[in-house]
Structures are given as C-alpha cells and as structure tokens.
Specification:
This protein is of the alpha+beta class. The protein has a domain at 27-78. The chain has one helix spanning 61-78, and strands spanning 27-33, 36-44, 51-59. Strands 1-2-3 form a three-stranded antiparallel sheet. A hairpin with a 6-residue loop joins strand 2 and strand 3 (51-59). The longest helix has 18 residues, at 61-78. The radius of gyration is 16 Å and the shape is globular.
Length: 90
C-alpha cells in the first residue's frame, strides 16, 4: 500500500461529490453463511427504537476477511487523528 492507503495495483476511484452521499450508521446487522456475508447498515428513526436500512452490502467470505483486515489497519493508522476532506485518510 502507498502512503495514501490505496493499493498501488488498484484502479482509480471516480467520485462525484455532488451526487454521492455519505450514509451515516447507528447500527449494523451482519449475517453470514458459507457463501458470503451481508451487512445491513441502518440508522435510528428519530428518537424511536425503530431503525431503517440505508444500505445493504454483500460480499464473499474472502472479501469480508480482507475488509476486516484493511479496516483494522486504517483504524490503527488513524488512531488519535481527526482528518477530513482532501488529504484525509482514505
């Protein structure tokens, strides 16, 4: 990985900041079976105990293992930092 946290052999990511929203999550429900993993990303509805799914993400078990590993690295690298916007941790 290079200094920006992107794999050197990965593709360029195209992002339209005007149309691509960031979905905040209060909760996440995870299910797995021998074929893969599904993440139901949810938000709490107001001050109620209800939640709504804002995104569903499915991936293979192998991809899920890579995701967990890379997320752990990112969290360790960014511990104690508060960066947003251009030049932030991606």
């Amino acid at each position: 990985m290079d200094e920006k946290g992107k794999k050197e052999d990965s593709q360029q990511i195209s992002l339209n900041l005007d149309t691509t929203q960031i979905l905040y999550t209060d909760n996440m429900f995870m299910t797995a079976n021998p074929d893969g993993v599904v993440l139901d990303v949810t938000q709490r509805v107001g001050s109620t105990s209800q939640v709504r799914i804002v995104s569903r993400i499915g991936m293979s078990r192998e991809h899920a293992k890579k995701f967990v590993n890379e997320l752990g690295k990112l969290l360790a690298m960014s511990e104690g930092r508060n960066q947003t916007g251009k030049g932030g941790l991606n």
